[in-house]
Amino acid sequence: MNRVVVVTGTPGAGKSTVIAGALKELKTRGTEYSLINYGDVMLKLMRARFKGTDRDEMRKVPTGPYRKIQREAARRIVHAAEKNPVLVDTHCLVKKPEGYYPGLPRWVLEELNPESIVIIEAPAREVLGRRSRDIGRCRDRDALAEVEEHQQLNRAIAMAYAALTGATVRIIVNRDGKLSEAVKEMVEVLG
Ligand code: AMP
Ligand code: MG
To answer: Structure pTM?
Structure first.
């Protein structure tokens, strides 16, 4: 099994953008990662069971079946991680109607065995601004306090994941207008 790096961040933190920038730069240096989006794998499995599920509605699927599909997704991701080092684009915590749900519960960590966990963060105000501009995705508009709480809890649970696995945790702040700085940091972690 290859090196696995887990990248997380609340929606609107800019996770996918920072990842794309870093992978592009790394490629020019001859380091090639396979990028796997946990949500893509979940959605594919989810649609086979719950017809017409959309990406943002997926988290509202009841926890019982959600957990089963999450576990199956972890197995598929590990299976794909045979050739290159793998970067998994995912979430520390998923906001379900029942409450916060761990993106990496014990059985997922055991499958992925990540070497490092990266958290992409941004100031709550900027996160909300980005979400409202993200017209392709319809997400509930959280209050500033909710985004702050989510980001605090992401940090806390990332440390718990580290305690369980020995993974390192790196926090990268992706401020408006400072994308290149965040990308640079990400390249350092992955390089
Ligand atoms: P994203 O497009 O990265 O914001 O992810 C879309 C959706 O995928 C999330 O809202 C979750 O429902 C699901 N998802 C992503 N990663 C995980 C995970 N590790 N565990 C459970 N669900 C996940
Ligand atoms: Mg994303």
So the answer is: 0.93
